[in-house]
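Good morning,

Both structures are done.
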Amino acid sequence: MFIKSRMSMAVVAAMTSTLALGSAQAADTTVDENLEEVVVTGIAASLGRSIDKKRNSELVSDSITAEDLGKFPDNNIADSLQRIPGVAIDRAGGEGRFVSIRGLGPDFSAVLINGRSPATENEDRAFSFDTLASELVRTVDVFKTSNAGLKEGGLGGTINIITARPFDFDGFHAAGSIKGMYEENSEDTSPQASFIVSNTFNDEKLGVLASLTYQERSSAKYTVENEHISKTTEEPFLNFTNPSQGWAGGYAYSGDGLEEDTYRIQSLYAGITNETRERIGGNLVLQLQATDDLVLTADVIHSKYDSSTSKYSTGSYMWAPTLSPLNQIDEHGFYNVINHGYDAGYNITGYAHLLTTTERPTESNVGGLNAAWDISDEWKMIADISMSDAILDNRGLDRLYIVEFLDRPGYIMTSNGGIPTLEYANPAAITPEMGSANMKDLRARINSNDGVYNKAKNHEFKFDFEWSPADSFLSQVKFGANNTVAEKATEYWKTPDLIRRMYHGLATQQVMDTDAVIKGVLKPGNVFGGLNGDVYMIDPVAYRNWMAENIDGRTRANTPAGIASKAAFIANGSSWDAVKSNDSSTIEEDVTSFYLEAAADTDVFAMPLHVSGGVRYTDTALTSSGTTQVLIGLEREAAEPGRPPSPWLVQQFADEAGTAVAMKNDYDNWLPSLNARLEVTEDFYIRAAFSETLTRPTLTALAPYTSYQTTTTSVRTARGNNPNLKPFVSQNLDLSFEYYYDDANMIAVALYKKDIDDFIVTMSLPETLETIVDVEDPAWRTFTVTRPQNGESATIEGAELNWTHVFENGFGLSGNYTFVNSDASLSAAGAIQRFALPGISDTGNATVFYDKDGLQLRVAYNYRTEFLGRVSNGPSSEPVHYDAYGAVDVSASYDFTDKITVFVEGSNVTGETVNKYGRYKNQFIGFEDTGALYTFGIRAKL
């Protein structure tokens, strides 16, 4: 943990010594249009280029460069980025998807592609790195400090992905690879191929580069999940008057006698997810040296990424844990041993068998025109216009099918860390087996469609001017403007709840045609830490056909609920088709920014000092439109004759189906920055920086949706979003010490501090609803509304240690470790919850490699300490933590000639798993095993 005053004083002292000396050269965050041809390849060469970029940068930054044309260090860009100090990644199916910088989550990382903001297919702002093929990438720069010329949006940092261009090379170059990808869990091998070609013509005044990539993956993931940790006073036990008679003995939920804060696991489900992925991508770049001083570039990147999952799972929801002398409570008030209907007569336990399928069909494009003009010896200009779009086209493509056992003997659950164990009262009554007696007892429960549709598009125009005066105290002045119009439409699709649950609770005694609905038993084996995961496999088509044909045979078909659900089913075309919900929305942001920065060079005691300072002004105009229920009246519910007036108020809406609304918000920010670099010697640099940065609110929090809950004469509550949110704003201090020795060796230490204001948290505050005009008592217009609000502050401090050394004999090593601390942490003492930042964790990486005479070997270890994943989960609002995680990656390649290379690579070769827990480690939340991934193939170049 860092002492804040010392950190602040160190940075301020370093900055103060530069203030009187003026401003220095601003950071060049644009892409170099005239890179020399890279002729040195391999691990050591890639590290050397990355170190050179770090050394020459005006900002605190790190970079990863391609080892050769079409060869990034890892198959996935995020997997490479995790080797950078201060960077952590979130995985999906064992592949890196989201990137966090310096303890702040993916929504706080600004991502650029060739300096442009790409549209994303996610609901919020985070960029999915698994949608972009690594073969297209030339360099990735991670800027951890900011200047006036760097586009705002990254509170944690900014990532700029730079793709290859034809003027990066001389003449004709081509490279391609064919790979096989073997998944350990699925035991499947899938193909992958890439090809990139570049050439220049007409005395190298015209250049063309094109690439194409294709990848398939077929993986399997083993999971065990607990929905949440339950608090006894919130979700009480079931108490029987006469346990030996089961349901007939009388029962009631009982929490009144358990006033102490005790906790328990709520559910336990084990399952296997099979996933197929297909990614097709490519880019096309045209460059023209129009004159000696003008270079024109047109480029487009296309990516099509589709994934499909099919998950069979089984488990039990602990809806009726029982008071029992068998129960045991640990020192934290957690039931590490709990009885759920284990005793004789307690046939109250239900067991579900599920089939869940999901679809993620995405497509994205980024393209633009760029003009780089050397106006004179002193003046340069870059103009850039671009457009991007992205779509997640899932209007109800996900499926959920559930069948269940009811009134079964229960179990005793023991949870002392890791996956809990179950002792069943009667295993034969619940173990899946085709043709068994228990198979005939399966009943229909849930059938539904769901999905999220996102469509985003960005239009961006910017120009940057650079003046380098020949005879002036200032070495450089930069100024420019940027306008970005971004629009994202989000639609939530789901089967109406009446249809989704038209068998749930209404068909408990109806016999199902299990011979048609159940097509087999999936037996994954011992992959769940001793927990039995055998599951009945539902035939989805047969299941839906049977439900549609037997709707009148439900046990409670003639009850009001049964009649209403059948009517809804018929009105929906006798289908489970999803319909768009009222909480869908469209968010448009029109952002205009201007900046000015100046730079100067001077000496301090014969040591070169480079100082740059400037300010960025940004104006954001937001329009949030969608559909919401507009409450216009509250009427007291009619009381029965002879009884007192009812306290309940009947809600009256302008339109029951929802009313179209549009809300506007506008805010502006001034973002100053100051950066200094002192060259103590030719090899030893000290950097200091101050900046203000911002991240705009998450898009889901800006949707104009409000729903109304309890309405009585004394209590009125609602829940909604908040289009009037302001951005997160941070004041940042950075201090970095960097020692460069030999050609590709470096030792660096970086310290940083972020003071973040206007953190967005969920608050419940009184609001007067002016839309309510028809009301008996004006006080009824006041509601307690729960919605996101700006209201918290947080401080993050950290230190990054980084060392790279290449020996003359071909061996080398690279390692880094990042320490992170925040005052917004979750305290375990007394189970007290308060505002906290998820994702705060230390990270470390260590790599040992050999690169000589055509042979390349590498072993890398990546580590992340335990961290808070969610502050509040489930009705009891308990947290979710991730346990520490470390993975080993390996690679080996051999150059048969200077044109042909064979290689093999392995990711997570030790088969490490992801484990989640609640407030304490024995409060199990989740287990995930994605297994190891091996890639082998051949690469060729011309």
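Second structure follows.
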Amino acid sequence: MIKKVLIINGVERTLVLEGTETLAQVLRDRLLLTGCKIGCGEGHCGACNVIMDGKVTRSCITRMSRVPDYAKIETIEGIGTLDNLHPLQAAWVAHGCAQCGFCSPGFIMSAKVLLENNPSPTREEVRDWFNKNRNLCRCTGYKPLIDAVMDAAKVLRGEMSKEDLMFKPTENRILGTTYARPSAVAKVTGSWNFGADEIKNLPEDTLQIALVQAEVSHALIKGIDTSEAEKMPGVYKVITYKDVPGKNRITGLITFPTNKGDGWDRPILCDEKVFQYGDAIAMVCADTETHAKEAAKAVKVDLEILPAYMSAPEAMAPDAIEIHPGTPNVYYETNCIKGEDTAPIMESAPNVVEVDAYCSRQPHMPIEPDVAYAYIDEEGRVTIHSKSIGIHLHHAMICAGIGVEPEKLRLVQLHAGGTFGYKFSPTIEALVGVAALVTGRPVALNFNMYQMITYTGKRSPGFMHIKLAADEKGKILALEGDNYIDHGPYSEFGDLLTMRLSQFVGAGVDIPNIRNKSQTVCTNHAYGAAFRGYGAPQSFMGGDIAMDIMAEKMGIDPFEFRAMNCYKESAGSTTPNGCKPDVYCLEDLYDLARPKWQANKAYAEKLNAEQSEGGKYKYGAGVSLGVYGCGLDGVDSSEAWAELNEDNTVTVYDSWEDHGQGADIGTLTHAHETLRQAGFTPDQIRLVMNDTGLTPNSGPAGGSRSNVMTGNAVRVACEMLVNAMKKPDGTYRTYEEMKAENLPLKYEGKWVATACSDCDQETAQGNPFSVYMYCINLPVVRVEMATGKVKVIRFTMVSDFGTIINKSVVDGQVMGAIAQGIGLALSEDFEDLKKHTSLLKCGIPYPNDIPDDIELIYQENHPRPLGPYGAAGCGEGPLAAPHPAILNAIFQATGARITRVPARPEVVKAAIDAL
């Protein structure tokens, strides 16, 4: 043991240590300074950054044996308080930088050292500093963070005050402003606890779980020997499938009757087979995480290895065995059949193009790994706290599997450090639920980043084959498609995802005749999970690139080609599903974007003339259109409650799960816009959110549905309360007056998308979404011709989301999507199970991989008839099609047409060499 004396946030602390601990472990476990986060655990992400003796220190890889005595350690808890923020913390709040908030403390500590050494940095110096110190953010796209540092520097130089940074409402109105989200201050001060932080506050008898996980992708299980593990120190119980009280299956809630599976194909703990790498085979529950992990190594699993089909073509081969016996590997098909038969049109049309495209298995890569804990509450309910973004949905999916009645299961959402959709699927909820049931003790499971990357769902790869026909003037006449979705081994939401190809291939384009077939394929690679954009990135990877190829074939400007073929009210244009869009806004949107397109083309030409360095670099401008529908298919709905309190405040209850997108500010803004009629201010509205024991079923926070569906439900609940409070003379009753008149104090608001209908299972014709969003993507790229390395140097996005509910939240969503789109286009992948095992190796973009030259333009003159206060959603549309725009820009720069992502340097170089 060693004794260390450290000065931590100005206080001398004496510690007795083994010396092998990391600084992060000591700060978090011994001192409970949990503002220091552990994300990757490898020094790749900067979430653990603290200051040691004036230098930025990645505490997760700094061993205590290397920390000198009397070292001065500063953490986020030591630089500001909830009531007195440091200028950097204030700037972080003002610029909406704390989206999920998990990375915020690490960035702020890093920036503090920068400004202490360089009080007047340039934007480039700030980016370089964050890059050097390995600060990663998956939410913001980095530009708001740079903005915040520049403004904090001004405050520290005395050029402005902290108060100057903060938005102050006028006339009691916050809708459409940059009003800060309620959670922001807690996030920037390190006092917003995430799952791994909450675990430290659980009772002393809490059992820590370590999983025994498959290290192969497909095998029969011949036996599981737990005898040695059960004898090891600290082990309380080793749980296998034999111990699971319920069906030991997570139901996929099959969406469509033509699905050939039954939805009960995903085991909680594998019993007969391993279906993918990382599958959970057993759980070791022990007194410490170290003891649990050591014992997990001692569990022996006897396997008979089977052929592993790691892509859709492999699983579709004639000799491929059924991964789930009795269910074919191709288990769902959807056909979009609109208008006349396309075959004669393809034969006679003067212009026909075809494209084969591939959209990759993009990993989500939140900086916070997956985490959950569970216990039996005072009412005998199995209570699970997790990062779930669909607590009522997951309740239905795991209830029978773990073996409890619905009323005996409660799900609570943790403060989530980003999910980007992977938590639309239950990941470890059923595991901790089973462990709590079997042991009767509180249990906790905290993934490391390796587990997070290798054993959570990924974007399902899309193999797209698209054919387009146009007349002699360039009017699109017909589209054909033959596409496959590789959805991994588990069917949950696979049919729904594949249906998205029937809804979004050709979306935004007036195409009278469509024959587009898409199939879902079961494979042994990572299971398919929702990922921001959900089906649209695959769809536009095929459809938009085909549009670009047609424009090139016909010699028409690619922007003008899209504009001339967009939805038009005068033409009676309809979506691929045969319905009219909710608004016809695209002609105006293209008009708004046209000057930016022309400026980007001129900019690329200027750079080619002045900065090509003798042909070393080539520059090009690209364009694409992304479209997304808000909601689950058909008649989606949501519920929220509003209650008048004794102190004449209002409590709003909903289950709008927050994974960084801003559910708290969304709920608050929709509620306030309604309640302000009765004089309520934002600080008089309280939020109770995301607990199935306390809050109504608002539906999952996915598919960009929440702002529309739950926003409307909040509005309705608050309208009901306001109407009840209103007196005949136009004034409003107080709590006491409501009680005196025996008027109800609590109102249940429900909103149902009754105007919608499911898509027909034979033709995919219908009216699936009440509201749509639209984004025109305009990147400029630089290509290094000798290596194929591509850098996006400018990105303009021109969007129509209807009414903007909160400007800083929408900005953050769009800029974050642009960064993820750049990653999808150029670097991100999860294909090689031996290589793609860390954030770095999976290709996550660092600050210098994303341009500072980002411009966001919003069109707001087409309010949505069914959106709350005219709003659409904004989460998915910006990630629907930035990647084809970047590939189209590479073509404009080099003449090399790339139709698969990621377009890593070797892919681009090969395409250039093939010219």
